[in-house]
Every structure is written in C-alpha cells, then in structure tokens.
Amino acid sequence: xxxxxxxxxxxxxxxxxxxxxxxxxxxxxxxxxxxxxxxxxxxxxxxxxxxxxxxxxxxxxxxxxxxxxxxxxxxxxxxxxxxxxx
Length: 86
What we know:
4 helices, mainly alpha, 0% strand, single chain
C-alpha cells in the first residue's frame, strides 16, 4: 500500500485531523491490506508465506472489531457497512 492510499484512508476514517491510530483507522487500513493480499493470493495460490500473513492480519482485524463492538456498537455497525465487512 502506498502512502497516498494510506493517507486517504486516514482522512476518511479519522476522528480529527491528527488522528492516525484510532480503532476505526486501524481497521480500515487492515481491510485495505487484506483486500490487496487476497488479490495477490488469487494470482499466486502457492504463496504460503503471504497466506499466513493474511491470516495474521485477519485475526488482528477481528480483535479490533470485537473491541470496537464492545465500546461503541453504532460505530461498529457503520464501519462494517462502509468497509463491506461480513
């Protein structure tokens, strides 16, 4: 992921202009990385190292989603809808 895409994601999901590490921003960045790795694995199905990395990222995002669900259910629902997460 290049810096420009990451900055756009941060601008879209940040709580204020200096926010770069809130739960919503972290989930959005991880989702972008998951989408990128998924496309990579469709072209390279034998790449086991990337597959393991994808599973680690999915687990990390799941933990953040569980945390957000407990803290603020409305933000959780709106974020899942905007990122198309099942």
